[in-house]
Design brief:
With 229 residues, this protein is mainly alpha-helical. Helix content is 75%, strand content 0%. The longest helix has 30 residues.
Length: 229
Amino acid sequence: MIKNKITQKEVHALSAVLLCLIFFIIIPFILVHFLPASADWLRKQNLLLMSPAIIIGLLLNFITGETLLKKSDFINIPFGRISLWSIGMIFLCGAASLVWIKLLEILQIDYSKEVPINDMIRSCADTELIFAGIFICILIPVFEEIIFRRIIFEGINDRCPPAFSTAVTSLLFAALHGILFQLFPLLLLGVYFQLLYNKERKLGLSIYAHVFNNTIAFSALLLLRYMPV
């Protein structure tokens, strides 16, 4: 007798595939349609660079059967404490960015063309900023945290020591953004988000910190747009 019941692993794998479909195809399509100024940014960002890591993560996720989202992920989140930590990380990443840019200049590595998101914010219409804000402040943090923390990290961590899994996931987080002049600050953020997740294995911790960070960054870009210096 053949059973028609779908196994838990199949549900997890299908959920992960659907997640990547939304993140890499549907969201960029909607953005390009409603926010034309984002087309060049999406092309330069080259989200498909993440595909190899995602495919490996999906395979590991299928094998381990790790649940992508859990109700416990969003229970008892210390918003105040994480907000303070995140503010500290913003200043730390700002300092790290200055050091990293100075190093690139010393090495005579040109990064002047790698600021596509700034150009996107400046060139889009006021009404289009709503879509940009939703994408940058909400959708990117949520999907990236699920992909990097719950899929890639958990897939690697099931077979490797936590320190190694944290290092690899953080390096992937920084490198797969494809932005050279922000590589070191992104690495620090990747480590920060990963340590928050590792603390209690709650995705809500890293999602909130990621949302907080991107919201502050987006707000700064808006200030530069309307109050150019």
